[in-house]
Design a protein that fits this description.
By secondary structure, this protein is an alpha+beta fold. The chain has helices at residues 14-22, 27-32, 36-48, 85-112, 138-152, 169-174, 186-192; strands at 4-8, 59-64, 67-75, 122-129, 157-163, 178-184, 196-203.
C-alpha cells in the first residue's frame, strides 16, 4: 500500500494497539472468553498491563498518513501471555467469580492445542490489520517487514502458530510458510468450532 510506514510503538500507542488487536476479537478468542464483548474487554486489558508481552514494547505499528492501521509483534524471544495481578483483578471485574471459572476451564483446552515455538526461530506472535483495513495488503506488508527484520538479525527460520480456520492461512501460504505441526482437541473444538491449531514455518535462505 502506497504511503505505508513502520515504526516501533511508544507508550502513547497502547490504546490504538488494543483497538487493532481486539476491537473485533478473533473467533477462537471469543470462544475461549465466552462472548465477543468480554473478549474485547479482557483483550484490551491484556495489552494495557505494564510490561505486557502483548504491549507496546514488543509492537511494530504500521501507519498510513499518521494513523496506526496494523500491528506486528514478533522476535526471537517467546514470552507468551502472563497472568499478572492486575490482569487477574481486571478479569474478575469483567467476569465475576462464576464465569471466570468457566474461562479457566476453557483455557485448559486451549493449552492442550498450544504448540511451542522453536528456540532458534523468529516467531510472529501477533499480526493484525485494523478491521477497516483488512484485505488491502497490510498483513502482507507486515509479514515482509518481519522477514526483513529476521534476516537482519540472521535468523534462518520464521515460525507462527494459528488456528486451523484462520483465513490468514492463505496469506501465510502465499508468503512461503508451510504447516509442520498440528494439534487438535475435542473440547477446544466444542468451545470454538475450530478443530485445532497449526504451526507454520518458513526457512530463510
Amino acid at each position: 500500500m502506497e504511503g505505508l510506514t513502520f515504526r516501533k510503538a511508544v507508550p502513547a500507542d497502547t490504546e490504538r494497539i488494543a483497538e487493532i488487536m481486539f476491537d473485533n476479537p478473533p473467533r477462537d478468542v471469543v470462544g475461549m472468553l465466552l462472548d465477543e464483548e468480554r473478549a474485547r474487554q479482557i483483550g484490551k486489558e491484556l495489552v494495557r498491563q505494564p510490561n505486557s508481552p502483548q504491549g507496546w514494547q514488543r509492537t511494530v505499528l504500521a501507519e498510513l498518513s499518521g494513523e496506526g492501521i496494523g500491528v506486528l509483534q514478533g522476535g526471537v524471544d517467546h514470552p507468551g501471555v502472563r497472568l499478572s495481578a492486575g490482569l487477574a483483578l481486571a478479569a474478575l471485574g469483567i467476569y465475576g467469580p462464576v464465569d471466570l471459572v468457566r474461562v479457566v476451564l476453557r483455557l485448559r483446552a486451549r493449552r492442550r492445542v498450544n504448540i511451542e515455538e522453536p528456540n532458534e526461530a523468529y516467531s510472529i506472535a501477533e499480526l493484525h490489520a485494523g478491521p477497516t483495513y483488512r484485505n488491502k495488503g497490510i498483513g502482507g506488508a507486515l509479514l515482509s517487514y518481519a522477514e526483513g527484520h529476521a534476516r537482519q538479525i540472521e535468523c534462518r527460520l520464521m515460525s507462527l502458530t494459528t488456528h486451523m480456520a484462520n483465513p490468514a492461512r492463505r496469506l501465510y501460504d502465499r508468503h512461503g510458510f508451510r504447516v509442520v505441526e498440528t494439534r487438535t482437541d475435542p473440547d477446544y473444538e466444542r468451545y470454538t468450532g475450530i478443530e485445532g491449531r497449526v504451526r507454520m514455518v518458513k526457512e530463510l535462505t
